[in-house]
Amino acid sequence: MKLRKDAIWFDDKIRDIQSQFSDYLEAKTQLKPREETLKIIALYVFIGGLWILLSDMVLSFLVRDPDMLIQLGTYKGWFYVALTGLIFYFIIYEKINLFKKAVDKIFEGFEDLSAAHEELLAMDEELIHQFDEIEKHRNALMISDQRYELAVEGANDGIWDWDLESDNYFFSLKGKGSFGYDDTEIPNRHDSWKQLLHPEDREKAVKLIESYLASQSGIYESTYRLKCKDGGYRWILSRGKGIWDKEGHPVRVAGSHTDITEYMELQERLYQEKELYQNIIHGAAVFILGVDTEGRIFEFNPFAEKLTGYTKNEVLGTKWFDMFIPQENRKQTDEIIQAILRGETIQNQENQVVTREGRRVDILWNNSVFRDSKGTILGIIAMGTDITERKAMESKLMSLAYYDGLTNLPNRQMFEKILKKQILQAKTNEKKLALLYLDLDNFKKINDTLGHHYGDKLLQGIADGLRATMKEGMNISRLSGDEFAVILPNVMDAKTFHSEVIAIMEAINKSWVIEGNELYITSSVGIAIYPDDGQDVQALLKNADTAMYAAKENEKNSFAFYTPEMHEKSLNFFNMEMDLRNALMNKEFILYYQPLINLSTGKIIGVEALIRWLHPERGMVPPNDFIPFAEESGAIIHIGEWVIQEACRQLKNWYNMELPQIYISVNLSARQIRQQDLIEKIIHITEEMGVDGRNLLFEITENVALHDLRQSIHTLNMLRSMNMRVALDDFGTGYSSLNYLKKLPIDMIKIDRSFVRDITEHLDERFIAKTIIDLAHNMDVIVTAEGIETETQYKILQEYGCDFGQGYLFSKPVPAEEIEKLLLRDKKIDN
User: Fold this and answer.
1) Cα 608 from Cα 589, distance rounded (Å)
2) Do 817 and 591 meet the contact criterion of CB atoms below 8 Å apart?
3) Do 698 and 791 reside in the same domain of the chain?
């Protein structure tokens, strides 16, 4: 009560002071030291200036006496001092009197305040105690506010408060700011909240809060989208708590708005990713497998079910090894899995999976680990492609690419790979190895005589025979049609090596019975030694091939070691090939012609065109010195074309010279017979030169025809269809001539000079010649005898009915000018 009494007394004093406040305020406004001082000085200056100006002017006007004027000026000054002193007295008095009143009032108030001070000290102690209590409450409230603020800020939430009685809907500044709005931009009304709702969410959100208010219990919670200022929408999780009055009417609801846009977008992405993941797993045509760190299966997609025959439910939780991995592969597969679990990257790893039916399927795996949020490896996700068919195809392609389809031996490509590897091993071990290059002698005749079926059977038998001779480290390959290669490693003992070569040749050189037909075949073998005869694949292969040709040229059915001299010979062959090509370019070839005589009339009926090479350094080179080289190198194609063209040109010249009509005989080589465009070129030449095909005769030997009997028959038939004639040269020297005479489409046979040479001395030769002539005539084939050198030979052949003859008795091969003289002679005889 004392505090209350002191407060009333203090209030009375305050009211007294306030009642006099206007007086004090007026005095305060009047008591302005600087302004008052300036006013006094200004007044003094104004009165003084006015006095000086006016008083002097008046005295000057009234008093003319100067002395009098001076005396009056003195009086005037004293008068001015007295007047201004009086004026200042009243002014100063008024101000000092006002100041005295103020001081009195202050002193009076000081006494009152001193008396009140004692009372206030007592009040102060009481107020301090109360203030301490209030401070404690204020601090507690501040801490509570800070906790609330930190919680709201930390939660990134906005605050809302809906007073249902006033319909005031409060958004916190943070809540509005997160949507881009200013605090004053959205009215604090419940309808404002409704307008911000997404059209698709509005009805549901309104019904949800109405349902909550009607429930009168629990916590309100709703999720919806609110519109931002930029037109976009953000997802909101709204939570709140309501207050109801005693009658159960809702009074107020307050809560928080949490922006969950990123969470909702994340949920959507996770859903899409899950859908994508499920679609990939269920739709992918790959084996998708998930195993944990213990090897237990936790994922098994439909393709895996289809491939293995097991359902997902059957394999979940089972051990991958126990269910699918063959026993012999489990250790290797376990090592791979452990490596993956250690974090190693292993891609394109192949293994086999056993299906329910026990079938093994080849799978190409790509593996990756999956981890939890802390990076701990939880297991392996493996995606596998069924490569069973691909592996089978690869095996088949491997076989086609690197193995001979007929004999199943490695082919040339595989042979070179093997030889390269063997060379590296020999180099590392400082050993020698031998390369044997085998070629079957006269194999083509078997193909052409009996057919390729017999030839293939023979090659298969030879391949099997060679395999039977194989020892550790040896390799046998088929390089081409009738060529094989054998690699013999660790060649150190000459005697042992020689016996191995003989054993290999004996596996070939024997009698073979193919479907009831007995065939005997031999082989020629060339041998090159690493590193003596070459230090790489190509050098060894080339030198072994060179040695094989040397064995074949020697006597066949033999073997030959490579020597540097063989290389020299090969080099000569290469140089000869270059010289032949240059000879064509430089026009070094010429044609000589040897007459063919009608043995009944003795007149020239044709000439055989024979090529000669006029070398600028070596002079005239005979055909036997370069034709074999031209045949092997392929230059014979261009040389033969030149011969046909030159012979037709010469024949056309003789036409123009109106010499007797004769034909020209041209020899065709084996390569020309196989030439695909031979007929087209002959047609082009004859049309260009204007030569009648009936005046052309093409000669082939049995050996030429035997290179490819079917192609030879086709080519010869084409020539005959153009009215050109065909002769079989060197008849009687080949293999099974009578058989070919029956098959080949020919118009003439030319008896080889070896029969004609001994016809005068041996009855057997005469009998053979007579038999050939009669046989040919019975087949309506013309017969020409080659190599007639004596009159006796001439008469015997004439007696036997031989049609034509050719030989030195009539003329040796001569230039075209000499033939022209002989033709002119015949023309004169006819005339």
Assistant:
1) 16
2) no
3) yes
